[in-house]
Amino acid sequence: MTVRYPRPLRPGDRVGITSPSSGVPKELCGRLDVAVGDLEARGYEVVVGRCMDGDGHLSAPAAERAAELMDMLTDPAIRAVVPPWGGETAIDLVSLLDWDRLRAAEPTWLVGWSDISTVATPLTLLTGTATVHGNNLMDTPYRASEGLLTWLDIVAAPQGRPFAQTPPGRYRSTGWDDYRAHPDVRDLTLDTPGRWTRLDGDGDVDVEGRLIGGCIETLVNLAGTPYLDVASFARSSAPEGLLVYVEAGEDNAFTICRNLHGMRLAGFFDAANAVLVGRTNAPDGRTLTQHEAVLDALGSLNVPIVADVECGHVPPYLPLVNGARGRVVHTATRSELTQTLG
Q: Is a pLDDT exceeding 90 seen at residue 7?
């Protein structure tokens, strides 16, 4: 199976907004309006779907969310689909999506992270369509931090041309911006110095492979099912091996440790040339840190494990393309991830 890259976005293209998981509460619609306005300012036509209700933890019944997502992903006039954010139980969609129809459709960008990994990662694994694990719609108004790109930069990038991202050396240690009071906030508060950390030992890292991964807490529930068959994807689409990335949103270190063990046993890391781990504010356990949890579960892989990468729930955001060819370099003086859509 060849990885399929949606064509680059250009002005005049249509972007679909739908909530496969959680919708937007009324008090946060001001931020939604700002984000939509930013897309329109770039010259894109924006279509907001019906599944956007934020009164509960789901935007609509599962059948309605699945139908709207299918419609947007298979509409040749819609070139990208961007949820406002993640949520909790998008797993109820995976058995309702028509994967054969998605495989036959012209590829469309799906962007998102957190609970959206539950849909985006299987979309790449089952159909070969590249997807973006990156800052979602409500984060879109933020300016990219030094050295990083936004998802909008990536989906508009020419295919075949490498693009590199380097960490800015700072991150946000606590809290979130108040979209109710400041719906138009555009500058991320990065209040703490921090760099990438090699967990498995010392020495420089310079490794290549195809990127695949997502949020641990959501993907673990698909481990061992046909929707998360990373080993088959590696055999058919990445004989050179994978760069597997994972990130913890909120679960404590004991839960993350168990989850990663389970994912490893299900073959999620079998073809990994290296593992990238997102920076997290999730709690440590009394006798186990988040870093130790990763090593406990994945140390036996005997591949480089690089943690505190900006691909998780802690700002800033380093978008990754599932299916892209990647190269990760980490030394005492340089950290860089280069991706090529091809």
A: yes
